[in-house]
Amino acid sequence: MLTSIVTGLCLAAQTPDFTRLWHTGGLDNPESVISDGRGGFVVSNVSGGGTERNGQGYLARLDADGQIVVRNWVSGLNAPKGLAILDGRFFVTDIDAVVEIAFPDGSVLARHTVTGANALNDIAVHDGRLFVSDSRGSRIYVFENGSWSIWLEDDALDGVNGLLAEPERLLVTTMGAGTLLAVDWADRSLRVLADGLPDADGIARATRSGYVISQWPGQVWFWRADRGRELIFDRRDEPVMMNDIFIADGRLLIPHWEPGAVSAWRIGCPEQASAPMTPE
Fold first, then answer.
1. Nearest Cα residue to 18 out of 210, 233, 223
2. Which terminus of the chain has a smaller tally of CB atoms within 10 A, N or C?
């Protein structure tokens, strides 16, 4: 997933407020969302089970206000999830492959099969390379020089899900282990930053030192290394699922696998007025 760093929003000790901007329903198991680079957004729709090869998955395009511009911008996919942009092209995970897509016409340029993959999930870009999590394989793959290889495989990556590339490290969420991990780019060493996050999904940077982490059954947290985590949303009873989040330009976007929607939130400082936090 492509993310932008939001800086200078709040004082170091502050937890930001989240004010709802819009809510778009009528989608089909949306899992991930990123900017399209032109003011709008692209949303992956699984449209079925998480590893179901039904050809019903698709990518939808939304405008800046959340209106659906093209529902089936790219169709015929199998449980598409993580999204990224590299060199002006879109990439989306598709169970055991990564599909490369031209923008803006949505034509499929290539399907890059990842041999040995079981359930590809999120995708991140670093130093011109693609990194993809395999949730059932406890591994992270890398695509460079036209081929795939296993970049990291470890028991600590049980249920590996969200990826966030930073200059010195790769941040990783895990569903099985319920952890937030940091992987050093240089030596690929692993360090646990936080635990107690079963079914952790998305990770995005919200402030200079703060991150937003989602747990897909219905929770979203704000986390800082020096303060731990604070609950933003808890909608498990509805349920309103919280999937692979995205932050850019002071906005948090959350795909909701159920009930099939995407919501957008302005990230602001506590002294700013905020609406009730209800991502239904």
1. 233
2. C
